[in-house]
Amino acid sequence: MLNKVINNIDKFDQEILNNYLCIKGLDLNFLTNFYENKPIFFNSRLFLTQSNLTIWDIIKKFEMTIDENYRKLNGAVYTPLFVVDYINKKVILENDTTNIKVIDPACGSGVFLIDALFKLKEKTKKSYKELVENYIYGIDIDPRAVKRTKILLSLVVFEKEGKIPDKLNIYNGNSLDRSFLKNFLKNEKFNAVVGNPPYVRIQNLDENTRELIRKYWRFVRGDTDIFIPFIELGIELLEENGKMGYITPNSYFTTYAGKELRKFLQQNGLIEEIVDFDDYQVFEGLTTYTAITIISKKRKRYFVFKKIKNSKVIDLENLKGEKVYYNELNFIKWNLVATRDKKLISMVENAPYKLKDIADIRVGLATLADDVYIIEDPIEEEEYFIKIFKGKKFLIEKEITKEIIKASILKT
Questions:
Q1: What is the DSSP letter of 60?
Q2: What is the pLDDT of residues 82-120, one digit of tens each?
Q3: Are 226 and 200 in contact (CB under 8 A)?
Q4: Which three-class secondary structure state does DSSP give residue 117?
Q5: Going edge to edge, which strands form the sheet with 379-381?
Q6: Which of 107, 140, 152 lies closest to 9, judged by CA?
Q7: Percent of the chain beyond pLDDT 90?
Q8: Per residue in 11-48, is it b (16+ CB within 10 Å) or e — as a string?
């Protein structure tokens, strides 16, 4: 019953919004501005213990209710506010342009756009209503996320100014479909492109999306990830004086799939700054190695490289960086390390023997069904290993099994 849809807003969303409106002392009829039929509100007890509920709490609660299968297929995750704040400061507050149009091409429930709205207000002093109507844009493939973003942007305007936006530039569709982009954005360019694009390997995408990626995006190579065409898209959406900030996997520094992207970024000197989180896990409950990349179209001789090292308290503002000159990079693979480490890497790379000279190196296992093929902590029974699967006991012959080492359990 929790997710029963009532007048286009499901019960869970209504519970959260109702509680927020009560806390802020706002008119409970606020949401009627969005729908012909008056939504049904509830005397919620769900969040009454959280008397200081904020707009950020609502966004996080929205994101945490995304179905797990949908999350895996579409790469939808909640972006921590410290990452959002840092990216938006770089591309909005530190942008030389005053009237900044912002777009998030994979906006989710709108965390980047809500923060962008507050920063645009700080920078321009324009009304929240005018900013939402003319300077905030978003796209998402999930119609529920689009609906939530529209509600939250309007909620900010309503709370701050007692008004409702006359229009919202938040669209439901596939950002990687150029036909969709042309129909809705009309070749619009933006001063700021922000976001956390989805991370999904191409083999896990539906066939239609695979075809779109292969058809429209030039940096796609081999076993690619969907975030790579999103970077290409972001660059295309930028005005000549614009800035772009994404958090993505840092794998594009070194993988074959990122080779053409590296080459393009390097030859055009597009990167201003990279913040590599190394093994620090930004996303709650996920093992993903990520980096923030700040891009502008103005050609540069170098970019600033920052790296998080063994830190539990992330202070991005005061993180020291080093200059990385483009002419010192090899686009075949970027070795982005501190100066003190370069000598050690050079020694390893110039060693007389390589690992490949003494070992047969292969790609690791990709079962796509570890629950079926991997036996964790095996129990032996004579010549068998015991495998418990979906509550049933199976005997697996020892002679057909191989011992494996999973990367996720390796330590330094």
A1: H
A2: 999 999 999 999 998 889 999 999 999 899 999 999 999
A3: yes
A4: helix
A5: 379-381, 384-389, 392-397
A6: 152
A7: 44
A8: bbbbbbbbbbbbeeeeeeebbeebeeeebebeeeeebe
